[in-house]
Amino acid sequence: xxxxxxTSKAALGLRDDVALLRGRAAxxxxxxxxxxxxxxxxxxxxxxxxxAKKALRINLSDLAAKGASxxxxxxxxxxxxxxxxxxxxxxxxxxxxxxxxxxxxLLGGDMSSTAGPLSxxxxxxxxxxxxxxILRSGAKPGDLVFVTGTIGDSGGGLAALKTKKREAMLVERxxxxxxxxxxxxxxxxxxxxxxxxxDGLLADLGHLADVSNMHIDIEAARIPMSTALRSxxxxxxxxxxxxxxxxxxxxxxxxxxxxxxPRVLAAAKLSRTRVTEIGVVKRGQGIxxxxxxxxxxxxxxxxxxxx
Length: 307
Hints:
Layout: E1 27-37, H1 48-66, E2 69-79, H2 85-102, E3 105-113, E4 119-129, E5 144-148, H3 153-163, H4 168-175, H5 181-186, E6 193-196, H6 201-212, E7 215-219, H7 227-233, H8 237-245, E8 252-256, H9 261-271, E9 275-282, E10 286-290
Parallel strand pairs: 2-3, 7-10
Antiparallel strand pairs: 1-4, 2-4, 5-8, 5-9, 6-8, 7-9
Helix pairs in contact: 1-2, 3-4
């Protein structure tokens, strides 16, 4: 089922226990890994094709935020007894579709069984010219803060699934994110720092602020929300806070000098990506969400916390 996905020569036809990559000396290799678990990151009855796509795409999102071109990935499946051959065929079908979409190939992996929940782990590899990676550490005072797409849709989709509301667009955003691979490539030489939005917009920009040793102010009213999410949650500041602290959006939040705003807009147009300016970088530490009255909004949390 998976051998046809190993279309790269580096995979050695899945006949060995390694993959063999020959990288160019002028490139940096970018690696990232993520795991999704049934009952935590997706529902047990979610379609296998969509589980496969989510597992791959959240890794591609990490590569996109660095400005990297994806190369391939390693796959590890920890399977409970309920998983059968039909489920695996559908899972492989989902991967095959996304391999065509994003130009990547399976390089290898592993399988095991468990008495616990289904677990899918992917390690993705990408490359970019040496020294061009967009890290979290480059934000400077006066930089503008931007984000791609719309925020909170995945959280809305999760809420809709839990309450059995028919919100097809939001549910699809939760199940199958859209990594901004093409836009990430255009950000090289433009963004001073970047991060993909997985833990929540505020939480992840907080990570960026910490690593850059900077402070970030975000204007709540400028956070982009989709029409579907506004219909579900409304347009109040409470709804904006909820969107800003929801996770799993897999958009790119990034900073750039005001002088490079025209280049940001040009990159957005070229890659057909919605981009919104939402804040500013200042000296200091931490992150604030500023309300319509110019005062910081009180937050119970900034997003997903692992511990």
